[in-house]
Amino acid sequence: MKYRKLGPELEVSALGLGCMPMAGIGKSMYGAASSAESLATIDRAIELGVTFFDTAEVYGPYLNEELLGQAISGRRDRLIIASKFGFAIEDGQVRGVDSTPANVRRACEGSLKRLGVDTIDLFYQHRVDPNVPIEETVGAMADLVTEGKVRYLGLSEAGAATLKKAHATHPIAALQSEYSLWERGVEEDILPVCQDLGIGFVPYSPLGRGFLTGQISSRDDLPEDDYRRNDPRYSEENFALNMKLVDVVKAVAARHHCSPAQIALAWLLAQGDFIVPIPGSKRRATLEDSMAAVDIELTTIDLDELEAAAPVGGTAGPRYGETMMSMVRL
Q: Residue 36: in which H helix or E strand, if any?
């Protein structure tokens, strides 16, 4: 494994592990997960030198943090644990965003307990709350740093202006947002701000919700209840158009004798040493495949071919439906 820094201080493995698929999401999100295999996957990640593990209160809700807490028990000191807050959760259901100071504190206390830790290494606001000034939310997060309950602060899917305001209130170590060969919108204004302010960038969905792995050849490969059947980029009208990118990724992978997923991750790693992707996995086999990407060096020819196949804005269809799109880049 290789290592990078988020912000000036927080050292993490160059690839983290997105734990969302492991527990508490339901089989409609990337298929059913086995708790035993999920725990074995976390064990294997640690063996491979992965130190960066990403979860959130809303995953489940709560169950994902509990599973990760079980997995890391007794070996906490070696690891960097990231979790997120930012939703109102009532009776196990999400009731919209809530980044009021009271909810920030409530979420942190709950996450600490479920994770079985004294401190959360990286605490993200999961989605910007348009009803609460970001300075107020970050101020409440900063109080948790002062109290030793959180080490570093992060935001997720925040716009450039919000990120600047947040960082002026308290240093932000990382911004987490979607970024991949088929979703490059952050390159226009988000990544430059991160570089200017010395903020790390953590891409989620780095494999395009599985599309870039090359393992999905048609919508029929998805279970009937898979949420991706409602993903605009997986729609009947967009699927074939987007497969053209996958064909190029496969061709580059063939030259390197590796998987398409490894090429997609290697491309992200090549975009800057402040970028730390967090591919999700619930099985050891996919974990091992993904983590091998840190050793792949793409050539100029590779990068040029991928650039031509996946220009900014070139993917057919928006990345989310209307409701979810209304919650990003605020």
A: helix 35-47
Using alpha carbons, select from 204, 205, 125 the residue that is nearest to residue 166: 125
- Domain layout of the chain by residue ranges: 3-325
What is the number of residues in the chain?
330
8 A C-beta contact, residue 7 and residue 200: yes
- Burial-class residue 91 by CB neighbours within 10 Å (0-12, 13-18, 19+): exposed
> Under CATH, which number does the domain 3-325 receive?
3.20.20.100
Q: Residue 65 is encoded by which pair of tokens?
A: 């943090």
Give me the catalytic one of 3, 30, 59, 179: 59
Count CA atoms within 13 Å of residue 185 on its CB side. Answer: 15
Q: What is the pLDDT of residues 3-20, one digit of tens each?
A: 999 999 999 999 999 999
pTM score, two decimals?
0.96
Q: What are the tens digits of pLDDT across the range 279-319?
A: 999 999 999 999 999 999 999 999 999 999 999 999 999 98
Q: How far, CA to CA in Å, does 128 sit from each of 1, 11, 41? A: 33, 25, 31
d(CA 80, CA 151): 10
For residues 70 and 36, the answer to whether their CB atoms sit within 8 Å is no
Judge residue 295's burial from the number of C-beta atoms within 10 Å of its C-beta, 0-12 exposed, 13-18 middle, 19 or more buried.
exposed
- Joined tokens for residue 251: 């061709």
CA 255/CA 222 separation, integer angstroms: 28
Token pair, residue 37, equals 């295999």
Is position 179 annotated as part of the catalytic site? no
Dist CA 95 CA 91 (whole Å): 10
Output the CA torsion sign for 322, 32, 83, 40. Answer: negative
Please classify residue 327 by burial: count the beta carbons closer than 10 Å to its beta carbon, then call 0-12 exposed, 13-18 middle and 19+ buried.
middle
